[in-house]
Amino acid sequence: MADRNFDNVQTLGKGRKIISGSFLPNGAGAIAADPAWLGFSVARTSAGSFTITLTDPYVAIVAAVATIQMNAATDVVPQWGAIDVVTAKTLVLNTLAAAVATDIASNANNRVFFTLTLRNTTVVP
Questions:
Q1: Per-residue model confidence as pLDDT tens digits over 68-113
Q2: Is the separation of the CB atoms in 22 and 108 below 8 Å?
Q3: What is the secondary structure of the chain as a DSSP string?
Q4: For 35, left (φ over 0), alpha (ψ -120 to 50), or beta?
Q5: Per-residue confidence (pLDDT) for residue 1, from 0 to 100
Q6: Which of 27, 30, 50, 117 has its CA 20 to 30 A from that of 9?
Q7: Which residues touch 21 (CB under 8 Å, ≥6 apart)?
Q8: Got the DSSP string for 43-70?
Q9: Radius of gyration of the chain from its Cα atoms, rounded to whole angstroms
């Protein structure tokens, strides 16, 4: 555990919430739940397509960033699909190789990371 003097995160905007997480792709298989997941769950919905479901609804999404760690060099990149943080509370994340949805093999060093910045108020600065 880091033993430093951490402080609060500050933002230019009211009611901003940050959810960060990651998951281990499992080829064509289901994604194993991780006890470290707080505020979301992840499911593989089709080849190279994952649905992140938020535990709570939010007023809006401000930003979504994703990256992929691979055990070996590859051209697989993340791309966000449909996002609805208000009603369905879901975000679709696709993993693409040459614009084709592509599964990522199960490997301890293959992981998808993401960070979401959400707005939890109707007050706009």
A1: 999 999 999 999 999 999 999 999 999 999 999 999 999 999 999 9
A2: no
A3: ---S-------SSTTEEEEEEEE---TTSPPPP-TT--SEEEEEEETTEEEEEESS--SEEEEEEEEEE-SS----EEEEEEEETTTT-EEEEEEEETTEE------TT-EEEEEEEEE--S---
A4: alpha
A5: 67
A6: 50
A7: 36, 37, 38, 39, 40, 42, 52, 113, 114
A8: EEEETTEEEEEESS--SEEEEEEEEEE-
A9: 16
Phi, psi of 10 (to 5 degrees): -110, 150
**pLDDT tens per residue across span 12-57:** 888 999 999 999 999 999 999 999 999 999 999 999 999 999 999 9
- Cβ–Cβ under 8 Å, residues 106 and 31: no
Q: Which domains does the chain carry?
A: 16-119 (2.60.40)
